[in-house]
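Encode chain A's predicted structure.
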Amino acid sequence: MPAKNGKQFIDRIDLAKPSVWFRGEEVGGRLSEHPAFRGLMSTQAELYDMQNHPDFKDRMTYPSPTTGDPVGLSFLQPKTKEDLAKRREMMMLWGEKHHGLLGRSPDYMNTGLMAFYSAADLLGEKDPRFADNMRKYYEYCREHDISLSHAFVQPHASRFDELLEDGSIESCAARVVEQNKDGIVVTGAFLLATQGVTTDEILVYPPASAYLPEENNPRTFAFAVPNNLPGIRWICRENLALGDSEYDYPLSSRFDEMDTLVLFDHVLVPWDRIFILGDDRLSMRLFAESNYHVHSAHQVICRYIAKTEFTLGVILYIMESLDRSSHPAAIEKVTEVIAQLETLKSLLIAAEAGAAPDRFGSMIPDRRPLWTANLIFPKVYPRMMEIIQLLGSSAVIMIPSKLDFESAVKPELDKYLRGGGVDAFAKTALFRLAWDLSISGFGGRQTLYERFFFGDTSVVVSRLFHSYTDKETYIGKVKTFLGEQQA
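Encoded structure for chain A:
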């Protein structure tokens, strides 16, 4: 199947029937009809429909090198700066459709998988099978437009070992408990597996130990499997979409990406789906040398820009509806967001302008502007939400529902809740949007998600610091200046 459409996406997810637990019960029936998933799945279907729409198809697909059929551009291994620009345009089209609110839109993992595929030769150093597995899996995903979730993080409890009465040590860290002729048997749990139950497959790749690396570590592996294998269960968090009304819940009803705890209970992973097994050093090398984070960051900055543009639009509309467009204090706040938007756009341009090929033939954006964006956005996004609250104040709280406008109190609402140049119904729709973005449970999850999207602050800071190869040059400028002064 080449680039799929929305109906094909929904049908495939409904037919998979993974073991999903929500609010203490196992979910039965079609996921696309369940209130915790139907809004998101409808939105994802709209993204896939764009791939086959005559207005977008040429900008969202490219001919498969295997069959010539159109496949998703986010699978493309960029080999020139023109390829980077094509891929970015495609990512921006999807980003503008979901306004940057889907952290796990399909292009995110498609791009990451492509990075691993491009460096598949590394895997052959351990076992030629693993390199071949990665190449074949990438081609399978590209040709069938497989949607992917991923699980890299384990629960906090996995860090602790328990000493049992018989002197043995027990750990709940995910591990390989058996190898046989059919594959490996894995037991353990992972977070957060965002969209794990509304994608076709999951890529599991826990970080390897950098302190005492081993060659046969049962806790080190990378593989990809369908989300409905026997022994896999998905435990969902609370649903943040409080209803289906797009007026009352304009964002959460469409964009709430379900996060899950995914449990592996003696799951058999076939040999042809395994990419890394036991080797800590190889596991770390694949992440680093494939430039996984650089390629992913190129997709993420496109999403950052789309999200900032949308937020800026909300803020400007708030100013207009409250007659504050000429207030100096309001102008000062909105220009903070404008400056951040223009900074992100400039960083994207700089990343592509400074791109260079790596040893695997991929054109790699300059990582320094991308790492800078990864450092900036988690700090400025909460501030943008604060600006919405500061400018909107009580209007973000006084948000009657659509049913109120259909009741006997409508005349009073129309009279007292109207704004500058906007009637009460439209003004309330705006502030329900502002509430859903900045205050609701959905909005709170968005803010927390952005804070830790690429790791905690120490990880993001370290990534930028150690990639900044110009440090000695700048120190040299100071030393030269001081030498001139001494002379």
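DSSP finds 18 helices and 16 strands in the chain.
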